[in-house]
C-alpha cells in the first residue's frame, strides 16, 4: 500500500489543475481498494455546500450538479463529525440522502473519511460497494484515512490555484482569496504581483499564455540546440575516461532531445498558445509522472534523467529572463524564497510589498523589509506562487495575511488603513524630541532594534534614544565569507558614530536556529534547541575574539558601546565570555587604543535564564529580555512555522508572569533591565512592560512614535492597575482584548490594527 500511496501522491502533485487531481484520486483509489465507487465531495466556501467534484462508479453527469448542505446526508455527517463513517447498509441509516441522478441506489456499503487541512474541512472522500454483506475492514479504512491526510495539502493548493484564477468550485467568479502566513514586516500594501522564480526550477514556473508563438518556438529551439551542444561537449571531453556502456548514456540524452521526442511535444504545446517555459514544464512533468508510475526500477530511474534535461533546457530559456521583468508602479514581489538581490532589482520607489513562501520574520529579507518599511508576509506554505503573477494583491503585514483578486469593498477597507497609517505617522512627528515620560513623570528609554545603516535615518527621525539591539550577524549575512576585523570595525563604527553619545548595544554573533550563513552551514534536526548563539562563538573563540576586538576599536573616542551576549543558559557561559572580553580589552589597550571598558549584559531568552536572574545580574552590568525567543521557548512554538504560529502569543499568561519575575529579580539586585522584541513595539504591550518596571524598550523604528504617544498620555499608576487586572486572566486572547479595550477607552483605538476577523467579515460581506 505504501508504494501505491507514494505513486498516487506524486501523480496528484503533478496534476495541472484541481479537476485533474480529483480525477486521478478517484480513479487510483477505486483501483487500489477494489471498490465499485470512489467519489470526492468538496466543501464550497462560497455556498457552504458539498459538491460532487469527481467520481469513478457513479453517473458522470452528476459531477458538479449534485450538492448537499453542510450537514446533509452521510457526506455532511462525515464532515461535521470530522471522522470516518463506515456502514454496511448505508440506505438504512437515518441520515442517508438519496440522489437519483447519481445512480447510487445500487450501492449499499459506504465508507467516508473527511479531508482536513489545517483544521479546515475541505471535503469528503467516499468509497461504496454493491454487496450489502461487505463492510470495509479496518485496513481499508486506515488506507483511505491515510490517502485523505496525504492529499489534503495538494487539494488545498489546487483549490487555491483555481480560486486565484477567479473561479469558485461552482465556476462562479471568486474574489478575496486569502492566505495566512507569518508577519514579516508591519504595514499594509496594495499592488500588482510580480513573481520572481529561482532559476531552473520547473515546479515554480508560472502558467501564462504567449502572444508571440514564433518567438517562443525560436527561444525553445535555441535552448535545445545549446543543451545538445553542452552534452556533446561533455561526452567528447570524457570519452577517453568512460567505457562504451557509460558513454552510451550521453546518446540516451541526445535521443531524448531529438525533434520527434520531448522537444516535439513541447513545440506542440507552444503552438497551442503556451509560453515556452510553461510548455516545457507541462511536458517534463508528464514524462516524469509516466516513468515514476512504471513497475520497472530501471525505467523509474529514467525520471531523474528527464528532470535533469528539463532543468538544463529551462536554465537556457531563463537566461536574461529575470532582468527583463516588468515592474509596475506598485510592485508586490512574490517568490518561493525571496533574496536581497531580488529586492535590489525593483526600481526605486516601486516596491510596496513582499510575499515569500519560505522564510521567517527573522530572515535577512524580513530584516531588510522592516528597515525599508515594506509590508511583508512570509511562510505562506499553501500558496500557488505561479498563479499570482499580474494579480492585484493586498499584503497585510500586521496579521501575516494576503488577499488575491480583492473585491472593491475589501480594497477600499485596506486603502483606508493605508491612509490612516500615513496620517498617523505624520501626526506623531511632533513627538520626536520629547521625552518618553508618563503623566506622573515615570521615565522610560525608547531604543531601536537595527542591523543596517538604512535604519539609522528613520530611527533618529523618530526620536530613538539609542540602539537596544544591534544585530551584528547582518554584516556576516551579506558576505560570502566571514568579514575581516577591519570590515567589521567599519560597520560598527558607522552605528556608534550615528547614535553617539547615546548607547549602542551590540549583540555578539547570533547564528543558528533560523539565521544561517551560507559559508558556515549548520545542519541540525532541531536547530532552535541546537548549536546557536553564544554556543557557536564560544566553540569558535577565533570568531568571537575578532568580533569583540573590532567592536572595541570602533568605540574609540565615542565610548557608547555596550556588548550583549545571546542565548545564555548557564553562568559558566557568561564567565567564559567575560574572560575573553577582558582579555581583548587589555590587548587592545596595549596596542595604544584609548578605550573604556564597555558595559556587558546578557539576553534573557531561554527559560533557564528566567530562574537565574540574580546570579546573572551579579556578573554583568545589565540584562535585556529577548521576548520573541523567550515566548517561543516558553510555549514550545516555532513562531515561524505557519502550522503552529497561531499558538504563539506574546500575551500568554505564562509569558507575562515570566516577564514580571525577570523585572522584579533584576531590580532586587540593582541592575537595569530592558526588553527587545515584538511586545515592546506593541502599544498595549509597551504599557504592560512599563508597568512591570522595565527601564528601556527596544523596537523597530516604525513602532516608536506610537509607543511614545501612548506612554506620554497615561500615568504609570493607570498602567499598573491594568497590569494587575490582566494578570488575573488565564487566556492570551482575553488578555489582549482587555488591553485593546483599555487603549480604546483611553482614546487610542486608532493605534490598533484590525485583526483577521474584521478583514474576513468585510470580505464575506462583499461576497454575499
Automatic annotation (TrEMBL):
GO BP annotations listed: phosphoenolpyruvate-dependent sugar phosphotransferase system
Keyword Membrane appears in the UniProt entry: no
GO cellular component: cytoplasm
PROSITE patterns: PEP_ENZYMES_2 (PS00742)
Keywords, in A-Z order: Cytoplasm, Kinase, Magnesium, Metal-binding, Phosphotransferase system, Pyruvate, Sugar transport, Transferase, Transport
Catalytic activity: L-histidyl-[protein] + phosphoenolpyruvate = N(pros)-phospho-L-histidyl-[protein] + pyruvate
Root EC class: transferase
Protein EC: 2.7.3.9
Pfam families (UniProt xref): GAF, PEP-utilisers_N, PEP-utilizers, PEP-utilizers_C
Domain GAF: 17-165
Entry GO MF terms: kinase activity; metal ion binding; phosphoenolpyruvate-protein phosphotransferase activity
Recorded superkingdom: Bacteria
Compartments (UniProt record): Cytoplasm
Cofactor annotation: Mg(2+)
Coarse class of the protein's main subcellular location: cytoplasm
Family: Belongs to the PEP-utilizing enzyme family.
Name of protein: phosphoenolpyruvate--protein phosphotransferase
Protein species of origin: Marinobacter manganoxydans MnI7-9
Lineage per the UniProt record: Bacteria, Pseudomonadati, Pseudomonadota, Gammaproteobacteria, Pseudomonadales
